[in-house]
Every structure is written in C-alpha cells, then in structure tokens.
Amino acid sequence: MTDDQPPARPQSLMFSFLGIYVLGRDTAVYSGSVIDVFARLGLSEEAVRSTLTRMVKRGLLVRRRQGRKMYFGLTEHAAEVLEDGRRRVWETGAVNHDWDGTWTLVGFSLPDSRRSTRHDLRSQLLWAGFGLLQSGLWVAPGTKDVTAMLAQLDLGDHVTVLSARALSPTESADLVRKAFDTEQIAERYQVFLDRWDTPRPLPAAADDLARQLLLHHDWLQLVRQDPHLPAEHLPADWPAIRAEHVFRTLAKKYEDGAAQLADTVLDELPLSP
C-alpha cells in the first residue's frame, strides 16, 4: 500500500484495532489472527509480535494461552485508555460548540531538582488540552478535572488550579491566540482532509478493514492533539468541521464490510467464566 502520509506506528494502529474489536467485548484475540489483520496494513509478523510483547510489558495487554495458541486481552488500564479515546472520537468530537465561557488555569513552579516531574506535567497538560499562556501558566477551555493527573505527580504546594473567566481588557479570543497554535492545528486537519476527503480514499489499501483501521487511527491522533477550542473563536471555515463530517461518513461506510471481514479473520477467546 502506497501513500504520501508517513507510516503509522504499529502501537498506534494496535490501539485503534483494540478500540474497535476488543474494547467492551470481554474477549481476547489470537495473536495469529491479529497478524493476519495487520498484514492488510503492510505490517510484518515480527512487527506485530514485537508490539504485542511491548504492550504486555507496559501493562496494557495480558496473555491467555489455550492449547498451542496465545491470546491477548485488555488490562483494566488499557480499557481506560481506549475508553478515553472512544469518548474523544464519538462524544467530545472535534468542534466545541458548547463552551460555557470558563477557563481552567494551572500554574506551577518546580525547582530544577524536579525537572523530570516538570517535563511530565507539561506532557500531561498538553494531552489534556492545555496551552501555555505564559511562563508557568497553562490554560484550557471549559472545566478540566486535573485531580488524578496531579495526584500521580505528587506536586503538593507547587501547583495552583483555578477556574476563571476572561475580564476586560483580556478577551477569550486573545487567550486562544496566545496559548494555542491554531495554524498548526488547522494544518493537521487539512492533512487529514487531503488523505480522506476524496472520491476513493486510499485506493491501494487491501480492503475496507484496512481503511477502517487507518481512518480511525488518523482521526484519533487528531482529536487527541486537539485542545477542543471554542468554535466561536475560530474561523468559520475551521477545517475540523469538514474533517469530522468526512470521518463520520467514512466510518459508517466502512463499518459493515470491515466487521464482516474481521469476523472471518479474528479468532477470539471469551474471558468470562
């Protein structure tokens, strides 16, 4: 399969596969059948086995042996990660039409001795949709519950969390402009549209199962990087609007055919007694 887009990382594709075909089904899948699915994406058996092994070591997958076959199921942590992705794709979406005018602010000051923690906190804030407003002060639209994130990092008195509204002379549009690179966000959506908003997306792909996995992978990467900015402070032609329509249309188009193919390929092991 040829495509101008850089190849997706096997683990990212694996998350998309697990989110569609394992999450919520209380089942494990045979490694050989996973290899067959990923062969449609041009991934080698070695790459798939290596990915599965790494995900076991990271506490994302568990092994279940039956006879000579090895099956892989989700850990609780993996299910939580995948459920978060499902919500972002199907519930949160790419366009924030419901913003209530509030902002969540996180301010922190950490000594150099905790440089690693500072890096981890910044990464977590970016993941949660925050943008850097000014040194040590991060902002995100809406009310964000950062309790669990901060508890993991043991920040104590080094961090302050507030909910606020912009007051004159500050405008919410200014906060969007200062804290977020909207041009870069728009460019990512445009790349998605260039790939998928065509009469026949990915004609070289093996089948609709391959297209479904690539589509979901590309979209999940987009919405996970999107801070979900208020639509009222974005251009009327914001490309996420068109991109979300394209994603939902194609997801529905591929769903039945991909599911039928998956049923013929996947060997599943029920995990319930």
TrEMBL record:
Domain Transcriptional repressor PaaX-like central Cas2-like: residue ranges: 97-176
Residues annotated as domain Transcriptional repressor PaaX-like C-terminal: 180-261
CDD domains hit by this protein: HTH_ARSR
Domain annotation Transcriptional repressor PaaX-like N-terminal: ranges: 9-77
Protein name (Swiss-Prot/TrEMBL): Phenylacetic acid degradation operon negative regulatory protein
Natural source organism: Nonomuraea africana
Lineage, opening ranks: Bacteria, Bacillati, Actinomycetota, Actinomycetes, Streptosporangiales
